[in-house]
Design brief:
Structural class: alpha+beta
Number of strands: 14
Distance between the termini: 54 Å
Oligomer: single chain
Strand content: 5-15%
Helix content: 55-70%
Strand order of the largest sheet: 4-3-7-6-5
Length: 550
């Protein structure tokens, strides 16, 4: 669920406090010697390792897509590794050869942190089973080649030491290889950010997504100043390991906060703005989430609703249902029913005192007939969609019992697909009661709503039906029933669905392709033809235009 804003602010304050304390410890350690200096440096390293480890744990809890979550967690692990190596170099080692190679080892996380950022960006918006294309493995070649810094002692193509130096330490010059390494880092970081920006799904908001570029520009500025060894920079922020880790973590966290990287949050806000008056409580009836139009209820009233519906006032009923970890309570508006009952009572009294008994009886009978007609239509809808209603009930029971956020997200998408069919199939039934024919635009509306729900399951959808064609309503229902039967059968491994209509002189031919490994041959009786080829099921259904024979 979404964290309250004060909790987000509190997290920022904690990070700022850790950085401030670590900075103070660095300044103290630079001015003292001996045991106090070592204590300050060790404590500072512990603070940073804990900070980046906590950020990695936070990322694992918030990110939805499994592959993207693994890449970001690996980045956090590389930051912890980098800080650990830096700590060993400055606090535990004195041998010049070991010191130099620990310094070279910095470049392993320096190269692969932005590199993994590119892979994380390529994974954005992909389904849970997504794997990067095989060609991306080629990107490991330049990244691995640039690890030549680890063998710098053999060639000095990255850091060049004086020829007369007895011990190779801090007296060095940057060679050509160093600039290739820096260029690779900058290229990967900018590629990752631009890819995230291009994949952004939030409309008209990209001007707000310039925030992640601020830490990138700061990193470029810092890197330039560090290369030229500006004296004041080394005194204020000379720990290049910490600075780059903080800046790159800031880049990724900015992407998360801006919405460039999708997270498993926002459900609380969605529930709050819902139109139904409802609230979710824990087992002790303490309200955890409430919609904006939900009533404030006492715990006694909530407990009473466990036994059945409770009348809050003459126009509102309170209902309750047990869920995992607590209860969900919602208010049902019965104002129309109450008004109808009151009106019936008034009519009864009026009829008793007037000569309009027959007229009132007629009106009452008309209402009864109307209700009977509605009940008949609802019964017809229930009979037509009985299997979908049972399937929907089973999915809802699974959703209430499930605690894994990834599984509940998948269940919600499936519930949306079934619910869209029930709603739109009912529309076709009601249309057929008034007219025998309809425009293909009505069928397109049914399919578009179902496609919208399928896209939440990361299913690729395409629809092309010619408008302005008049067909019998029963044939439109046949096409929609065939589509729904295929979707329900292939729901677990559905990858794409394509439906196209082609208008002829006297008929409209519908073509449907479903990419799925599920056996859809039992549906052949619903179509004119059914063919399976290369993992794709192809169906054809020919219907006559209104007034025309097929």
């Amino acid at each position: 669920m979404e964290q309250p804003k004060w909790k987000n602010h509190r997290a920022v304050l904690w990070v700022a406090l850790v950085v401030l304390v670590a900075t103070v410890l660095r300044q103290i350690g630079a001015r003292v010697d001996g045991l106090l200096d070592s204590f300050c440096n060790v404590l500072r390293s512990v603070l940073y390792i804990g900070l980046f480890a906590a950020w990695g744990i936070s990322v694992r809890r918030r990110i939805v897509q499994p592959q993207e979550r693994r890449y970001l967690t690996a980045i956090a692990g590389l930051m912890v590794f980098w800080i650990t190596v830096r700590t060993m170099r400055y606090l535990l080692v004195v041998d010049p050869w070991v010191l130099r190679h620990l310094w070279y080892l910095y470049y392993f996380p320096m190269l692969f942190i932005p590199f993994l950022g590119v892979f994380a960006a390529l994974s954005l918006g992909k389904p849970e089973h997504f794997r990067l294309p095989q060609w991306t493995a080629l990107l490991y070649i330049p990244a691995a080649a640039l690890l030549l810094v680890l063998t710098n002692d053999l060639h000095q193509l990255v850091f060049a030491f004086p020829a007369d130096a007895v011990v190779w330490e801090n007296d060095y010059q940057y060679a050509i290889g160093y600039f290739f390494v820096v260029g690779w880092q900058v290229l990967c970081a900018l590629t990752a950010l631009v890819t995230m920006l291009i994949k952004c799904r939030v409309p008209n908001s990209r001007r707000f997504f310039l925030l992640p570029f601020v830490p990138v520009l700061l990193a470029l500025l810092y890197g330039g100043l560090y290369i030229f060894r500006v004296p004041w920079l080394r005194a204020v922020a000379g720990d290049v390991t910490v600075v780059f880790c903080l800046l790159f973590a800031a880049v990724l966290e900015s992407c998360i906060q801006c919405g460039l990287i999708q997270t498993n949050t926002g459900y609380g806000k969605l529930f709050e703005i819902g139109t139904i008056g409802a609230q979710i409580t824990d087992g002790a009836y303490h309200t955890r989430y409430a919609s904006s139009n939900g009533m404030a209820l006492s715990q006694d009233v909530m407990r009473t609703a466990e036994q059945g519906s409770v009348s809050i006032d003459k126009d509102t009923l309170l209902k309750s249902s047990r869920i995992s970890g607590g209860y969900v309570l919602w208010q049902e508006d019965i104002a129309d029913m109450t008004a109808l009952l009151e009106r019936l009572e008034e009519n009864r009294k009026t009829i008793a005192d007037s000569n309009s008994l027959a007229e009132e009886n007629y009106r009452t009978q008309a209402k009864i007939n109307t209700l009977r007609e509605k009940n008949r239509l609802y019964d017809q809808l229930q009979k037509q969609t009985a299997s979908q209603i049972d399937l929907l009930d089973g999915l809802l029971n699974q959703y209430e019992a499930e605690t894994d956020p990834e599984i509940t997200r998948s269940l919600l998408a499936k519930i949306g697909v079934i619910g869209a069919y029930i709603k739109r199939r009912g529309n076709l039934i009601f249309i057929e009661e008034k007219a025998a024919v309809t425009d293909t635009a009505e069928l397109s509306a049914c399919l578009e709503e179902s496609f919208t729900c399928l896209q939440f399951m990361d299913v690729e959808c395409a629809l092309a039906i010619p408008a302005g064609q008049t067909i019998p309503v029963r044939d439109a229902a046949r096409v929609y029933d065939l589509f729904e039967a295929a979707m329900e059968a292939a729901l677990e491994d559905l990858r794409s669905v394509w439906l196209k209509g082609r208008a002829l002189e006297h008929a409209v031919i519908f073509y449907m392709e479903v990419e799925s490994e599920t056996d859809l041959s039992p549906l052949a009786g619903l179509a004119d033809s059914c063919v399976w080829e290369d993992g794709v099921w192809r169906f054809t259904l020919r219907v006559g235009k209104a007034g025309e024979a097929v």
